[in-house]
Amino acid sequence: MKIMFLTNMDVATFGVAEVMQHLALELRALGNDVLIYSNDPSAQASRTPRGIRCVQGPLPKPGFWSSARDLAFLRDVCVRERVDLIHTHGAYRPGFAARKLGIPYVITSHGDLAAEGSQRLKRWSVGWRLGRILRHAAAFTYFHAGMLATAETYARVAHKSTRIANGLDLEWWSEPSTPMPTPYLLAMGRFVKTKGFETLLHAQKILRERNVTMPLVLAGAGPEREAWMRLTAELGLRTSTTLEDLGDVCFPGVVVGDLKRQLFHSAQAVLFPSRLDSPEAFPMVLLEAFAAGKALVWSEIPSTTWLVPEREGIAVPPADPLAWAGAIERLLGDEPKRLEIGRRNARRAGLYEWKHIAQQYRDVYLHALKGASPCIRTVA
Asked: What is d(CA 130, CA 151) in angstroms, rounded to the nearest whole number?
């Protein structure tokens, strides 16, 4: 079976890219071939960092006046590669293209069906178009019940839907790491406003005033990096960009590979402060904290409410620095509780091993191909 992952997202780094790469590797182990297609410049490399073939090309924006010419390049790739099935990572723009191609397609939304974070979904034309995309899909997979409920407001999809989580490479996470010399708190992700890292900076200021001196490591990159570094200085906190000297707040940039595993393994706790308007679907940072056996402090937003049991850490209202400072202080002050939460999370990580997740997707693919409507033509 030849599968195309179709997306308008980065295919090299950050959460969705890692999901596609790991899933592709496990599907390959099951005897399937996977190609990733994206309009994002990261696909120009022709292979992802984990060696999955990728193609960079145009992806039409959904609209009433789109034409066959807009899909010509993508259609040629599908014919040349003999694609049997398309798996869209993203419901709206990739789904719009997939519906036009005449190939059975499966939809997984990675946040564009998170109504709390999307102004676009409030537009009538978008809702009408999304309904058509969902109705014509051969299958729909979702991460939590809130996503299914949102999809059902646009089209009846429950009968062809399957709940599938994101996964973990547990073998990789179990490899030993050299401990970091200085204890710290860790938050990681793309530096955009909805991630809520500004809340952590204000909370860090409060903690310093309470003589809690644990450094905070904010790993990642994005448009808000410079603004958050300026805010750190304005709050009177010492800023660092190197892990050799953490300061009060360290901005080491994007971390991958062994360094990423080392950062998670050595953290005292992992923080997830995303705002209520964040289009989070299944935050990978939560799973990575599980795999590293770390206690969590997380924002009470829909995706975490569905995914993380209360006893696996501390839930905090988003965008409330005082509440965040209090939660962090309590967790740091109770080492037995922090370690016990970490042990429970490590056991929980076993539920998300990628080989199990890939088998679930493969079952969905086979069912989708078997039940494809006669009007849907697989490219020969």
From this structure: 9
Integer-rounded Cα radius of gyration of the chain: 21
By CB neighbour count within 10 A (0-12 exposed, 13-18 middle, 19+ buried), where does 319 fall? middle
| Crossing angle between the packed helical segments 93-101 and 72-81, to the nearest 10 degrees | 60
Structure confidence by residue, pLDDT tens digits, 65-112: 666 688 999 999 999 999 999 999 999 999 999 999 999 999 998 878
Whole-prediction pTM value?
0.81
Instruction: Supply φ then ψ for residue 267, to 5 degrees.
Output: -70, 145
Q: To which H or E segment does residue 216 belong? A: strand 216-219
Edge to edge, the sheet with strand 269-272 lists 239-240, 249-253, 216-219, 185-188, 269-272, 296-299, 313-316
Residue 153 CB-half CA count within 13 A = 13
CA nearest to 181, candidates 108, 263, 122, 105:
263
CA–CA dist 374, 15 (Å, integer): 36
Instruction: Round to whole Å and give the CA distance between 208 and 330.
Output: 14
Residues in the chain: 380
pLDDT tens digit sequence for 204-231: 999 999 999 999 999 999 999 999 999 9
Distance CA 318, CA 324 (A): 8
| DSSP output for 300-312 | --HHHHHHS-GGG
What is the C-alpha separation between 329 and 109, in angstroms, rounded?
A: 36
Q: Pick from 61, 78, 81: which is nearest to 70 by CA?
A: 61
For position 312, what pLDDT does the model report?
A: 67
Q: What is the pLDDT of residues 175-190, one digit of tens each?
A: 999 999 999 999 999 8
Name residues whose C-beta falls within 8 Å of residue 152's C-beta, 6 or more positions apart in sequence. Answer: 158
> Residue holding tokens 């970091």?
180
Q: Looking at the predicted structure, is the pLDDT value of residue 64 above 80?
A: no
What number is the average pLDDT over the span 33-40? Answer: 97
Q: Which amino acid is at 174?
A: S
260 closest CA partner among 228, 288, 226? 288
Sign of the CA dihedral with 108 first, then 90, 149, and 290 last? positive
Q: Which token pair is 57?
A: 């090309």
Structure tokens at 22: 């790991």
355: left (phi over 0), alpha (psi -120 to 50) or beta: alpha
Cα separation, 366 vs 361, in Å, equals 9
